[in-house]
Fold each of these.
Amino acid sequence: MKSFRTLDLAETFYELSEKSNLKGNLRDQLLRASSSIALNLAEGNAKRTQREKKRYYQIAYASSQECKAILRLAKIEDTEIIDVSDKLGAWLFNLLKSEIPTLKF
C-alpha cells in the first residue's frame, strides 16, 4: 500500500496527545479529536470519489483545529506537540486544496 504521509503524521499526533499531561475533560476531548483526525483520513482515503474523500478530509481538518484550540486553552507549551499540530493542520489544508485522485476499480 502506498504511504499516506498525512495519516502517518495524524497517528504521531495522536500518540503525542496520549503522552500529554492534560487532565480531565480537555484530555478526553483532545484524545477524541486527535483520533478523529486519523480515523477520518483513513475512511476518506477508502472512498471512491473526490467529493466523498474531501468530505472526510474536511472533518479531519476541523478536528485538527479543535485540537489546536484545546492546546491553547490548556496553555500547553510542549513544542513537539504544537509543532506536529501546526504541521498536520497545514498538510490537511493543502490536502483539501489539492486534486485528489479517484480510485480505479
Note: The two ends are 15 Å apart (CA to CA).
Amino acid sequence: MKVIDIAQNLMRFRSETGNSAEIEKCLQYVLSLFEGTPVKGGIFHFEDASPVLFLANAKTDDFDVLCLGHLDVVPATDNMFCPYIKNGKLYGRGSLDMKSFAAVALNSLEHVLKNKLPIKFGVILSTDEEKGSKSTHAFMQAHPKLKSKIVLDNDVGGDINKIVSKCKNPVFVKIMADGLAAHGSTPWEGIDANEILLQTLHNIRQIYPYYSKGGVDPQNKWIDTVHVAIMQGGEVSNVIARHAEAVLDFRLTENSTTENLKRNLDKCMVKGASYKISSESTPVVMDENNPYILDYKHFAEQALGHPLEFEHIGGATDSRAFAVRGSIVIMHSGTGEGMHAEGEYVEVDSVEKIADIQIKFLDKLAKDLQ
C-alpha cells in the first residue's frame, strides 16, 4: 500500500463533518482496499450519530493494538479537495488533520494482515471528530467491553520530533444570565442581562487569566485555561437585554478536576447568573518511562536520526475513551501546518516515517508477545 497515494485518494472525498453522502463514499472506498483479505468488522451505523469504520485482523474485544483516527474534515473551498504535492509537502484539506495518518493506520493493518503478525490489531476511524466525536461515543457505548493494551493516536501535535505524553481535559460550560427587559432610554427600569454576564466573566478572569498573542504569554503553559467561545445577548438595540449567555471552553490539566472548576464557578456567579456543564472528558496522561512508549520512541529516533522529546498539549484526543479503560496511548504525528486553515499541508517524508515507525513497532511487539 502506497501511503501517500491512499492519503490523496482519501483527501478527494469532501467528507466535511455532516456530509453523509461523501462520508459514506469515503468509507466504502476504505472497505474496497481490503477486498479479498480476511479483515473483520466493517461500517457501524447509528441512529443519532455518524458512522464509524472498524476493521481488524481478529474478532475480539481485547486487542493488543488499536489505531484511532477520523475521516471527517472541517469545511474548505473546492480547490482544497484537489490534493497536490509541491516541494515535499502534500497540500489540501485533511493532509495534516488527518487523512494522511488514517492512511498510515490502514497501511499498518495491511502489514499485519499480509504478514500474519500474531497480534490482535484494529483500526477505528470516526466521522464526526471535528464536531465533538459523537460517533466515537456511540461506538464505545455499543462496545462496552472493547479495550486495547496499546492505542496509537496520530491525531495530535503536528511535529514529528515530539511525542505527546499529556493532553488536557476539555470542559465546556454555558453561562446564562437573566435580567429584566426595559426600554434602552430608561435602564433603571430594567436589569441588563449583558451586564450580569460581563460581571460574571470578569469574576472568572480573576481565577483563570486571559492569555493572548501579543498579550500575556505564560512561561509555564501546562496550566488551566479558558476562552470565551460564544457570546450572545439581547434582541434589538434599544431594549435592555433580558437574557444573555456565553459558552466557555476550559482546558484542565490532570492536577484539576471538574468538581474544583464547579467550586470556582460557584464563587463567580453574580445575582441572575447560573451555569451548566455542557460536556466534560478526562485528561490523557501517560508515563514517559512506560516500556512500550520507550520502544516506540526508540524506533522513532532511529527513523529520524536524532533524539525526540516529549510534549504536553492543550488539545483533546479521542484516545481518552481508551485511556479511561486502561490503554497505553502513544500520541505521535507527522509535521505540517495550516490545520483547519487555507494552505493546510503535511510533510510527505514525515508521513512515510510515521508509517515506517508503526510497522517496526508492530513487528517488535509481535515478537515480544510470542
Note: The mean pLDDT is 96.
